[in-house]
Amino acid sequence: MKQVIMKVIETEKFISKMFIALAMLFGMQQTANAQLGGLLNKAKSAVKSKAKSVVDNVKGDVSAEVKKKADKEKEKVEATVAEKQASLFVGKTPDCPWVLAKGVNPADVEKLVSNLGTMNHEKTKDFAKQIDARAEYNKYMLENMKTGGPVPFNSTIFNTATEEKKNWETLYGKILNKGDVMGPGNMRKTEQGWVSDSDIRIIISTKEQIFVTVKNDKGMFCNLGGSGIYVTDEQMPLVNDAYLFNLNAAALLEGFAQHQDKALERTYNRALIAAKLIGEAIGNNSPDNFEKREKPKAGSMNGAWRAKALELAKQKFQNVVDVVVVSNSWDVKKNALGVPVNRIIYGYVLTKDKVGTRAMRISWDQKYSGGGKYGALNNYGVASESPFYVK
User: Fold this and answer.
1) What pLDDT sits at residue 240?
2) Which position among 46, 53, 92, 217 has the lowest Cβ density within 10 Å, counted as fewest Cβ atoms?
3) ∠ CA 336-341-344 to the nearest 5 degrees?
């Protein structure tokens, strides 16, 4: 700025000298006043233009100098940050969790993943923090030794970090292969977070016909068709396992998704959403969530086979109060040669719980014994049709 002021003062002196010279030259010529005024104005304008140019140039020089100083300060700050990063782990090497350690037994890792549905969540979160701390340490060491950074190359540290990184990847590979990360598959990231583009249907148990969907912006248990159901006390352990598995899987996946593999961010959020919706469904579990249906009507085979079918049903299910055979004739199954294999009748097993009477589709069969004869009646199978409560 001092340079700017000096150049402006010099310019003003120059203007004053011009005025004096012109006045002496034209002082005796009164008739030339108008011409003199015009010349003076032109001279003044030219000098001002020159002065502005000088000021702009000086300002540019000053701005460049300020930017240069700012860049130097930035470099200084970045260097300080780098030094702090370089000393981040000095004397503070995180302990290595057993799941990352050299020679870890893959069967033990498999067992850990299989038990995620029963593990205490707070303890799992603490374990995940230990894994993430060690993984971050290894990542830092590998990156700085490879790039000639502030960490001197050390073959022992390098080899250990490399092996632990592979064990880290193995752990998360087993979580993904477990297949219990059950959040919606069609997901996309928005400013508001991860959302699903399709109807969310989380599978908890196909055998028990327990799913979770979204109704009124909250998770709710449903059957395969999407109708609301009530999960009984006997079924609830399956639900609790699914809830904890996803909650614990999310805790373990978080660090890996954020620091190692961004592609896993989708899976991490799937687990989070699944845990959230299952938790909501548990809170919303109520007999009011389902619609009761009429009791199935008996077919013509019911009279002859109801008693035996009831006896068999009580051997297979708990709290059985009745069966209804709905078939009017045998369904004969044959092999490729046309020889009978067995014959089947269909019906429902009715069980009683605190909610009411529950109907479940089932079938019974007789094996073909030859000569047009069949053996004793047996429990055959449970249909994929979702159970329902009767009026």
Assistant:
1) 92
2) 217
3) 125
